[in-house]
Amino acid sequence: MDEAKYREAEGRLWQHVGLQPEERVLALATTGSKVRLQVIGEGPPVLFIHGAPNAGSTWAPIVGAFSGYTCLLVDRPGTGLSEPMLGVDDIEVLYRFGDRFVEDVLTGYGTDRAHVVASSFGGFLALRSAAATRERFNRMVQMACPAMVPGMKTPPFMKVMSMGWFRKLTGMLPPNERVGDSILRQIGHSASLDAGRIPQHFKDWYLDLQRFTDTMENDGDLIGAGASLRGFDPANTLPDALFASVATPTLFLWGEDDGFGGRDVAENVVGLMPNAALEMLAASGHLPWLDFPDKVGQRAREFLDG
Predict the structure, then answer these.
(1) Nearest 5°: phi and psi at 68?
(2) Total domain count for the chain?
(3) pLDDT tens-digit map of 194-217
(4) CATH number at residue 175
């Protein structure tokens, strides 16, 4: 961890989008982990929960669309500048963490309810939290395929990351943009890479997240606990009954090219939920706000406005 260098890199990203977050540190009641929260704007709160391996500043391209809201960008435990969480290799610990994650962040921040925008593993946490603590949610936007939904596929890079020897090897090698682009292609962003839609300043920040924080090591351990070369353990798939219990009004903005699951997975997931809607996004992948930040940010904002 080189916090100073990472803060410099993150500062350049925020400078590119013309925003400057305030910062808080919260202690999560369920795990005791201290997490960093970046706070932008004023108004009703919106909690943004990122996937793996990633950090809260991944949302920088779209938070400008949420004027009139207080955007809460959390670094999940073990990512960005947040402390790691013990017990990630115990699925029951992970379930309890997910059930209370939104509640713990909102309580630490000092608010009772919020909208939630989530992606990938963050989507898994948001779904578990919405089922367990629905009173803490207003509306929810799920960006593409949440982790551990029925029918989810496992991209090759995550299968390889499940191997401990590989994580140790890559930890000794400097990250590079070629590998980063390969991962983006595996999760469905080839069209945007070929069209030059993913800005260089975002790629630079993501490489520096790998260079100067322990995110890849910690989230690699998380991935390794639930996956193998065969993919993610199907025993950890979220049950149909959990989806049926999520009453929160939810919009899925799902990339047609999402490497974790396409339209068939999306329609099945949304069909299990009583108050969910689906919009498929052409030429978009697993992180659709990188493909079309203005369009995706505006649509998410419209849904939260009600």
Answers:
(1) 90, 0
(2) 1
(3) 999 999 999 999 999 999 999 988
(4) 3.40.50.1820
